[in-house]
Amino acid sequence: VVQAFEKGVTLADGQLMKSATIIPYGDGLTAKIILHQGVYHQIKRMLGVFNIGVNTLHRTHIGSLELPADLQPGEYVKLTKNQLLQITNNMFTEN
User: Which of 21, 23, 26, 79 has the smallest count of CB within 10 Å of its CB?
Assistant: First the structure.
């Protein structure tokens, strides 16, 4: 799975995902996944190709913007104008 993610995974609907990085943790059930694009339910869909389910997800970054470690489910952070520009510029400059 790690090597497949590095090459890019073709989803069940034929859509090709950009390469992604999986860093497994020692328990064999947890991993850090670094994506370079954002597609609806992308992690679940990519792992689903290999019949691997997802129990929980925790987002730590959006682009180069790091989310606060203590941000709880349902909470949000008000972005500054510069942070918003940083995120939206990344959306339109990445291939």
Answer: 26
Helix, strand, or coil here: 47?
Answer: helix
In sequence order, the 6+-apart residues with CB closer than 8 A to the CB of 72 are none
State the Cα–Cα distance between residues 52 and 31, nearest whole angstrom.
12
> Which pTM value belongs to this model?
0.79
What is the dihedral sign for C-alpha 51, 52, 55, 60? negative
Q: Residue 61 forms beta bridges with which residues? A: 66
- pLDDT tens track for 12-37: 999 999 999 999 998 889 999 999 88
